[in-house]
């Protein structure tokens, strides 16, 4: 039997198993979405005069060489929105530095970094651009003009901003948090925007080599017809995207759209969608981040923020939470003062989706692949009673001597980087560059990712 399927050149890059792209066959293993873990409460609440009405739900986070940075939308009592800035050393305790950049009510003693008081403004998202010169290292994509279109700005530090000379950068209506990032694989900027389609909300996408000149977006994801009709639950659509390119593995893109359930109850929680190319997404209908308990700051609406922080062996993400439903629900307004806060969720490294083996033994075989390196690690959770083995097959699907199932060691426990061994040895250097397959055999185990290492 010769090589089947498409050859995957995996090199030494980590490979996530959130879909069937790397699988040729499986028996027993099931693809499983893993909800995020909620944390103890808000990490940032409205306290300042310029936050009198709310810390709104439009938030971005960046890890800038060990300094965690957050940009959030503040809404004062005069209904003006401003972009504000906070930093943290641990991702839990956030500080509002006094920046002296923008005057507010006669004082520059504040953390405001951007405002647009005339000509229309809708806050957006900030990202760090590794491809840009230092004076344009940070980018901001936001709504501006009347009617609102999509504008841009740049900054050397995320604090002092210069609007782009080209206005707008995307001639497209906006009424959500648009997201943009530099895709190092495509060598382009990729933006995800609101797509309004015949009475429901969907997600559009556009890409460009030039941050100031994007072509019109195309629709890339929308709620299914039965979701829009509300066959089994209230009719819903997708409010925002919070799209990211996952920085810790190859060819992995995630969206975290807020599922907006209409009348009733006009509430939102967060779902998860995955992609290999940032265009074709698979979305789980199960909830990734659930609303808080009644009366909590996030008891009615949750919007995930773009950006991730890697803290040890976890990914931390942030969201805006609100305790009022979305208008036109009769209980939506008036909003109380000091409304809305920033929450935090946790998930294990690479842990968004796993391949789960049953209590009866399951089998999963990859497509043909070629790797570099001399050892193999897996991200797995066998808890107390589960286990995993790995067998290496040749081009004809035969076990390779020294790396067969019978010679494979049981892998126990819960680890994001479990070394794979055969009779106590893990050296794979003799197989590097050859076309092989991995055959995973497991019982009561969650398998998230694998990686060959030098």
- What gross morphology would you assign? globular
> Biggest β-sheet, characterized?
6 strands, antiparallel
Structural domains: how many: 2
> Class by helix and strand content?
mainly beta
Describe the structure.
With 454 residues, the chain is an all-beta fold. The protein folds into two domains: 8-34 and 354-453, Jelly Rolls (Sandwich); 37-349, 5 Propeller (Tachylectin-2, Chain A), CATH 2.115.10.20. Helix content is 1%, strand content 45%. The protein has one helix and 36 strands. Strands 2, 4, 28, 31, 34 and 36 form a six-stranded antiparallel beta sheet that branches. Strands 18, 19, 20, 21, 22 and 23 form a six-stranded antiparallel beta sheet that branches. The protein has a five-stranded antiparallel beta sheet with strand order 3-29-35-32-33, with no helix packed on it. A hairpin with a 5-residue loop joins strand 21 and strand 22. The longest helix has 5 residues, at 225-229. The radius of gyration is 24 Å and the shape is globular. The relative contact order is 0.17. The model has no long low-confidence stretch (mean pLDDT 95).
